[in-house]
Amino acid sequence: MAKQLEFHNTPNYLTLLRIVFVPGVVACLAVGGLWWDFAGAVIFGLAGFTDYLDGYYARKLNQETIYGKLMDPLADKFLVICSLIMLQSLGRIHPMVVMILVCRELTITGLRALASAEGVIVAASQGGKWKTATQMSAIPCLMLKDFSEQFLHGFPLFQIGLWLTYISIGLSLWSAKDYMVGFFSGLKVTYAQRLEKNREKRRMKKQRKQAKKVAAEKATALKN
After folding, report:
1. Which of 21, 199, 206, 213 is 20 to 30 A (C-alpha) from 103?
2. How many Cβ atoms sit within 10 Å of the Cβ of residue 145?
């Protein structure tokens, strides 16, 4: 349990670094311009790489902690949502796309918080992992729109980013369904276990009460 409460380790530092990268990405896109967009894409790519590294080291070094379980998904959401909002402000992505993705993230975050409070473990789905990977690939492509037009000789990097974004929407909705099913299935099992536990408590209480009654009757009989 002590390791679970430890904060100072490599995976947690990498997660913190990813959070620190978020203002850098936002600042680069806010300043604007071809090279600032390029810098924002590079910082975003580095931040995405830390997502892989912190998970790798957490498993390899057996350093999975409560802090990591909290911060890791939040860091991903901070990075993706802030980047999407900036890209929408630059007119590179439709507002409806951002609304769908943000609402999905809020829904799943709330669902997992409720699941945790109810003692239900909702594991990350494969669709959710593919969704994250797709978004991490799509967003830099959208950031490099002007850069690709000028230096990549018309290579459709921006269009690839758009298609990957649309694919991520489908994966987001599909994985949300998996989380919902997992939550309610786990909730049924948890409630059934609680019900059985309460029944067992009542049976034990009834048995103790009967045992006391029998003991009292025997004691009365002996006195008589």
Report:
1. 21
2. 20
d(C-alpha 134, C-alpha 130), whole Å: 6
What distance in Å separates the CA atoms of residue 26 and residue 116, rounded to the nearest whole number?
Answer: 32
d(CA 9, CA 224): 73
| Residues 79-132 pLDDT 10s | 999 999 999 999 999 999 999 999 988 888 888 777 776 677 666 677 778 888
- Pair 128, 104: CB distance under 8 Å: no
Say what angle helices 66-89 and 10-31 make with each other, to 10 degrees. Answer: 10
DSSP string, 145-169: HHHHHHHSTT--HHHHHHHHHHHHH
**Which residues, other chains included, contact 98 with Cβ-Cβ below 8 Å and sequence gap of 6+?**
84, 85, 88
Q: pTM, whole model, 2 decimals?
A: 0.78
Residue 216, number of CB atoms within 10 A of its CB: 10
E strands, the chain, where? none
Q: In whole angstroms, what is the distance from residue 137 CA to residue 208 CA?
A: 63
Beta-carbon neighbour count of residue 5 at 10 Å? 9
DSSP state of 92: S
- For the chain, the farthest-separated pair of C-alpha atoms sits apart, in whole angstroms, at 108
